[in-house]
Amino acid sequence: MEPLSLAAVASVTGGLLTDVPDPDTLVTEPLVFDSRSVKPGSLFLALAGDRTDGHTFAADAVRAGATAVLATRPVGVPAVVVDDVLKAAARLAEHLIRFCLTDTTVVAITGSAGKTSTKDLIAQVLSGLGPTVATEQSFNNEIGLPVTVSRATAGTRHLVLEMGARHLGDIQALTTVAPPEISVVTNVGTAHLGEFGSQAAIAQAKGEIIEALPRHGLAVLNADDPLVRAMATRTSARVVLFGQSETATVRATDIVLDPDGRPRYTLITPAGTAPVRLRLAGSVQVPNSLAAAAVGVETGLGADDVAELLSAAAPVSRWRMESTTRPDGITIVNDAYNANPDSTRSSLQTLAAMGRAAGRRTVAVLGQMNELGADSRAAHESIGRTAASLGVDQLVVIGGDEARWMQKAAKAAGLGAVHLPDQDTALELLRQTLLPGDVVLVKASRDVQLQHLAEALHTTTP
């Protein structure tokens, strides 16, 4: 973080200094909202949540080295007292971008699926041009964005920010704090359909990231998604399309998956063509990497450089098609970070491709997909039918009604499917039935926490 005195922090946030011996003391490290992550020089955000109140950890944060606490009341240690900690953090992040990060290009990414992987790929491509800071994991909301901004310094060339939304106006608020010069939209799917009510409403929300662009900015849009492509009308900035469509500026041809589900393809750009061999599993990584390629080419990299950087890009954020193979040859694909109908279909397609490529048995272990509203039953039944149509060998579903809907639809379509109430029961069944060489996909919505099952499977041998 660019150093700021506590007096400056108070001025920017409209706060009042309390228990501060020296107002000129500097904040030199990023904002933190977990007292266990404090570094000497940090500014600790005392956020009040449903289960814990950050104010109770203020003294611990200062003992760990925090310069001060951003709080809504005096806490007995150096603090900047404000009316609202989140709004104050946003004001601080906005100040940093406007006055401290003047040579930093802000790249913003959103979409219903794949935005975290796309963000990670873009950051690794742009690192070829200079120091790059990106959102960690998927900290893409009003808490995570100011924290990410505070990690940048004057020497940061690119600031890559993932932006999520649960309501109309969420992304607009984030882009007000961090106005982008480059905006990327991966797709418009059915994630949070229960919140928004329709895909059209989701598109309206995601498109706020395009509307935030200045006239000299750049919109990077998915040519293969009509709802995303239509966002070109919502900006006066230049538009670049990526995808497999012939009309895409940056596209892929000759796409194949290797036996581990990792894509290979020929990258075609205005700067030339080059072969790409990704280290990330899943066919969905093709459009994700094409978005990164488009950003790379448009910021000055050649096709060969982009292809080399993409081919070297490693998985960064956990539990997203995270593939590991046990000593007995069983491969566990941990894709349990989150799930919606689009991402689940894509993961099942990759599972099936991995099985076909090496003649291996495939097992899908699925839990419920949340936030689908009135479409939930139809969506879960569709996933059951998809698993059957792709030739998955075994389906194990975990949970309540949603799992039963998947199981019944899969069985009706001819697929052997087992419904189990919890992870412990599923783990015991899989221990008894998995065979050497099997490929096992584990996927569900975040709240289901199926990553624990995937990790248990990885450390368990039959």
Write up what this structure looks like.
The chain has 462 residues and is an alpha/beta fold. The protein has helices at residues 6-13, 58-63, 85-100, 115-126, 144-150, 170-177, 193-196, 199-206, 208-211, 226-229, 285-298, 303-312, 341-358, 376-389, 401-412, 423-433, 451-458; strands at 4-5, 16-18, 26-27, 31-32, 43-45, 68-71, 79-81, 105-110, 132-134, 158-162, 182-185, 218-222, 238-243, 250-257, 263-269, 272-277, 322-325, 331-334, 362-366, 394-398, 417-420, 439-443. The strands form four sheets. Strands 9-10-8-11-12-13-14-15-16 form a nine-stranded mixed beta sheet, sandwiched between helices. It has a six-stranded mixed beta sheet with strand order 17-18-22-19-20-21, with helices on both faces. Strands 2-7-6-5-4 form a five-stranded mixed beta sheet. α2 links the parallel β5 and β6. α3 runs parallel beside α5 and α4 (115-126) runs parallel beside α11 (285-298). The model has no long low-confidence stretch (mean pLDDT 95).
